Amino acid sequence: MPPPVPEQLSRTIETLYRSESGRVLATLVRLLGDLDLAEESMHEAFAAALESWTLAGIPDKPRPWLISTARFKAIDAMRRRARFDGAQRDLELYIESHAGKASEEDEEIGDDRLRLIFTCCHPALAPEGQVALTLREVCGLTTEEIARAFLVTPATLAQRIVRAKAKIRETPIPYEVPTPQELPERLDAVLQVIYLVFNEGYSAAVGAEVTRAELTGEAIRLGRLLTELQPEPEVIGLLSLMLLQESRRAARTSPTGELILLENQDRSLWNREQIAEGVALVEKALKSRRFGSYTLQAAIAAVHAEAESVAATDWRQIVALYNQLVRIQPSPVVQLNRAVAIAMRDGPEAGLAHIDAVLAHGELANYYLAHSARADMYRRLGRTTEARSSYEKALALTQQEPERQFLRERIRQLK
Predict the structure, then answer these.
(1) Contacts with 101 (C-beta within 8 Å, 6 or more apart), sequence order
(2) What's the pLDDT score for residue 103?
(3) C-alpha to C-alpha distance for 182 and 298, rounded to whole angstroms
(4) Helices and strands in the chain, H and E counts
């Protein structure tokens, strides 16, 4: 193969970084036992590829080349930092004896990636650190990309990553898949991180856009990876849920960025391939009878996805599914969503009674969607004064500009 031209090579290496950096880093972490050293040597290997492949051409198997090159870079770095003592020499010999085999075996690399995911999502790390580290080390996003997606400065995001790495090093947090006894609790933490990434992309907390496709895309990619490596029912259920929710993205905003509610969405814009895949996955998860909250949420999303319109939606089935969900996850937000479903089944008066009962507990006092849902019940009942008051409370509590525009328009329509 002739050497590529520099511009093509740069694009090829960038694509390879996106697709292979997670695998390369995971193997290096196992070999080196040091996340910082693994990351540093991996970046040096990609930089070396730009120089070496310009002359020699791209190898048939780039990943083993990158792992091997990074391995030598790591050994060189260790030699530069200090003279080898006995332990360092043992590590060098271990790297030498294992690196070739590790770089070739896809099954081993799969195990490595699973170890890296569980390390990045360890419950000892702060939640924001888990998210930042997972997007950086498993997904291969840059610090700047993650910071931009979460609307924080690169310096702030970098500090989160530094603190998380320090915690891993100082605790120390083992680089391993949990035992079968530990797996349920630890797997839940991983799923929470993936869904947190997805939710920030699906409905950004602040800013000028409702959705951030790069984050929903990365969360779905993580979900697919975890499903391949650990096909537990709830992992499958979460992937189903994300696909079904993402299927509506094109219909959730107008061409000019205004928010469009489910009842007004053009369902011809929904992604039918994602819906078909999501429905098949949730049916598989439900058959296991070992499912949990993500699978039940996916089942609810599937009922919406398969309905031709809001009027044709099987609201009785949705309420029944919410009843099951409340039993295993009795959170105020789930109870609020159930109340809205009850309103669709039994009318706004019944919905309002259930929303008031949820708000009476106080946990959702600062949750703008609770006040927005309450306002909608008042609006449907013709109680304009109460509707305006609740819409204004919701407006005061949200920082997302499309949501604010939507609420201001609702208030204007009441006059």
Answers:
(1) 108
(2) 46
(3) 25
(4) 19, 2
Contact by Cβ (8 Å): 259, 402: yes
pTM above 0.70, yes or no: yes
Q: Is the C-alpha dihedral spanning 84, 89, 94, 100 positive or negative?
A: positive
**Which of the two residues, 99 and 204, has the higher pLDDT score?**
204
Q: Give the H or E element holding residue 399.
A: strand 399-400
pLDDT digits (tens, 9 = 90+) for 135-184: 888 888 888 888 877 778 999 999 999 999 999 989 989 888 888 888 87
Q: List own/partner pairs for 90-99 with CB under 8 A and 24 or more apart.
A: 91/32, 91/33, 94/31, 95/31, 95/32, 95/71, 98/31, 99/31, 99/67, 99/68, 99/71
Residue 289: how many CA atoms within 13 Å on its side-chain side? 0
Query: Which residues have CB under 8 Å from 140's CB, separation 6+?
Result: 17, 18, 21, 22
Q: What Rg, from alpha-carbon coordinates, does the chain have?
A: 25
Strand partners, 46: none
Q: In angstroms, what CA-CA distances link 133 with 140, 142, 337? A: 10, 10, 31
Residue 107, exposed/middle/buried by CB under 10 A (0-12, 13-18, 19+)? exposed
How does DSSP classify residue 253?
Answer: B
**Mean pLDDT along residues 49-78:** 88
Point out the least confidently predicted range of 338-342, 390-394, 403-407: 403-407
Residue 122: pLDDT band with limits 50, 70, 90: very high
Place of tokens 């996805």: 305
Quote the CA–CA distance of 178 and 252 in Å, as a whole number: 39
Which has the closest alpha carbon to 202: 246, 171, 156, 143?
Answer: 246
